[in-house]
Amino acid sequence: MPGSLVKLVAPDGTYDKVPLEKDSIVVKVMQTRVKSLSQFPSITEGLDENMKYMEQMAKQAMTEGDKPDFILFHEFPLTGYSGGTRQEKLPFTIEIPGPETARIGNIAKACDCYIIFGSYVRDATWPDHILSINTVIGRDGNIAKTFWKSRNIKRIYKDREITTTTIEAVRDAYRKKYGIEEEFPVLRTEFGNIAVSTVQFDPFIYAAFAMRGTEIMLRTATLFAQEDVIFTAWSNDFYSAMANFTLPVSTGYNAGESLIVNPHGKILAKHPSKEEDGIVEAKIPIAAFRKDRTIPNYALEMTKPVFEQYQQEIPINHLNMKKDKLPKTGAAMKELMDSISRYNPPKKAN
User: Fold this and answer.
1) 266, 269, 274, 275 alpha-carbon torsion, rounded to 10°
2) CA angle 241, 245, 250 (to 5 degrees)
């Protein structure tokens, strides 16, 4: 069915949902350390140790505080982040489904909750691409939904660009395979409508998720900005949680401080540390929030003439190429973007 005929947003402000199982739900955010697979003697040992730590933290979430309905891990609990070329990074990814999602499924069943985690992923359908995917495991232990990263932030580094493949980077092929409605998917659960994303500093992306009926925006990111989480929740009228990993303060990175925010930008819970592991917890009155709710009121008609003339710097589908042509390094990715930039001169990192 052509994209124009697929119903993505209702014109009367309503949105699709399923009946709620209860009036209030509990979200728990897992702030945990990150260990890269490249640091272990073998990938198998690394995955096993990281998985055991996820199991340990999930057990803690089940036995401390209120029973969770959603457990949100950060972007790299299983694989960590590994440097190197594309071919060097590919082994430090997982497949979905795979043994790791099966083990996490056992945790979800034991907890009777949804578990969400991010990871770098390889997929034979997308040979040599490194995918950034958030996976939602359902209460039955099965994969309920996978969320590709919508797009990467660009021009943030002076000497490189992020090489992972996003929806934007292969949009036409992605749309042909999965459908236009999967570009901004929403998982309608008995605990509310959720979406998951690793995108940062991108208001249009989150507005699109809100238009599609997102009520709880679960975010997995690395070294995020609190202001981004607060403003995004406030401007799009949804609850939001952000899971970050921990690093020693001595590294100079702004890790930790995971948080949960309400639709008015109020912080409901926040971990006080940048380097200590722990759990952030908040109750969400989902039934009261949903009652008489419509999607946000955006100034789309007023701004549409400007948007129609705007041209983004990097063309969509920029990684829709043969696998041997894919940029092998962050520096090569920057060379590609500089070469296809629509701006004169190409935009530079701040």
Assistant:
1) -170
2) 130
Question: CA-to-CA distance for 2 and 8, rounded, in angstroms?
Answer: 12
Nearest to 255 by CA among 277, 282, 283, 281: 277
Q: What 3 state SS string does 24-69 have?
A: CEEEEEEECECCCHHHCCCHHHHHHHHHHHHHHHHHHHHHCCCCCC
Give the model's pLDDT for residue 2: 47
The pLDDT of residue 68 is 98
Residue numbers in the chain where pLDDT is lower than 70: 1-4
Question: For position 254, what pLDDT does the model report?
Answer: 83
| Beta partners for residue 280, in sequence order | 29
User: Bridge-partner residues for 137, per DSSP?
Assistant: 115, 143
> How does strand 187-189 pair with strand 192-197?
antiparallel
287-325, pLDDT tens digit by residue? 999 999 999 999 999 999 999 999 999 999 999 999 999
